[in-house]
Amino acid sequence: LTWFLLAPCRVPTVPVKNLSGSSPVNPALAGITGILMSAAGLPVCLTRPPKLVLHPPPVSKSDIQSIPGISHTCRKTTKKQAKKGKTPEEVLKKYLQKVRHPPDEDCTICMERLSAPSGYKGPQPAVKPDLVGKLVKCGHVFHLHCLVAMYNNGNKDGSLQCPTCKTIYGVKTGTQPPGKMEYHIIPHALPGHSDCKTIRIIYNIPPGVQGPEHPNPGKSFTARGFPRHCYLPDSEKGRKVLKLLLVAWDRRLIFAIGTSSTTGESDTVIWNEIHHKTEFGSNLTGHGYPDINYLDNVLAELAAQGITEESLMQEKD
């Protein structure tokens, strides 16, 4: 019987897991299962479940390094600086061409025909409901009335995002609450990136009170799970991602206040469509390494927020 249990596993094998449970019942059941399977002539492969590794081994302060080519090791954001002086109509005028003869199709904002007046029923903008405009870069056509209403319901930061194709006009900013972002190199390698060290990012946002740009102004918000530790390989592409994440942080696009998709809690700080890797040494949750597509995927997510290599040049200017 011992020979069966110790014999090398051959295909097909039936793994028996959970050998390291806190209760003696688990190993006992595994042993009984192994005996029964061996008696039936089935090969047994005793394996341990993979372990979740959220954090790297301890790192002393002397082992932490700044990142070459990136100034400082910390960024802070403060409350939103309101932009003054321009009406929504003046902002949109930069991005639109008037359309004298609207096409025979629906406005995708109000779902009324472009040849008919806007069907928007909310607070009425100071624009005639039958005027139609075309966005200059993507060419999509909407009621001016609807675009102004959409702008007024958004962040009012001087930018506009086409509701059809998501093309961004101007510089998109978000509603991330005040906080701190730290970043540095630690002397450990991520799975799948054994040829380089690791960039560690630490986000810290405290709870507070929602501002006028948030879902419930004046109401308090929670901030669960901070500080949040995230990881990138210290490779050329990893450093590029970090530089773009710094732009996203400065534009307040990494976090938002909303309802948590995991806990259902409302009025709390949530991730904002730019995925991060929060699991250091495994990938059991899907938020770790190895993941050969992650860097390309996060670059695409950043681009969807209007953050590309051109953004780095704009920040320098």
Written account of the structure:
This protein has 317 residues and is of the alpha+beta class. It folds into three domains: 13-46, no CATH class; 62-78 and 178-314, Enolase-like, domain 1, CATH 3.30.390.130; 88-169, Zinc/RING finger domain, C3HC4 (zinc finger) (Herpes Virus-1). The chain is built from seven helices and 15 strands. The protein has helices spanning 2-6, 25-39, 88-93, 144-152, 236-250, 294-304, 309-316; strands spanning 14-16, 44-46, 74-77, 96-98, 132-135, 141-143, 160-161, 168-169, 179-186, 198-204, 208-209, 220-221, 228-233, 255-258, 268-271. It has a four-stranded antiparallel sheet with strand order 3-9-10-13, with helices on one face. β7 and β8 (168-169) form a beta hairpin. α5 runs parallel beside α6. The longest helix is centred in the first third of the chain and has 15 residues, at 25-39. It is elongated and about 80 Å long. The termini are far apart. 24% of the residues are buried. The model is unreliable at 1-7 and 9-25 (pLDDT under 50). One of its GO terms (cellular component) is cytoplasm. It is found in: Cytoplasm. One of its GO terms (biological process) is Notch signaling pathway.
Task: Give the gist of this structure.
The chain is α+β, with helices and mostly antiparallel strands.
**Class of the largest domain in CATH?**
Alpha Beta
User: What is Rg?
Assistant: 27 Å
Strand content: 15-25%
- Classification by helices and strands: alpha+beta
Family: Belongs to the Deltex family.
Keywords: Cytoplasm, Metal-binding, Notch signaling pathway, Repeat, Transferase, Zinc, Zinc-finger
Catalytic activity: S-ubiquitinyl-[E2 ubiquitin-conjugating enzyme]-L-cysteine + [acceptor protein]-L-lysine = [E2 ubiquitin-conjugating enzyme]-L-cysteine + N(6)-ubiquitinyl-[acceptor protein]-L-lysine
Main location: cytoplasm
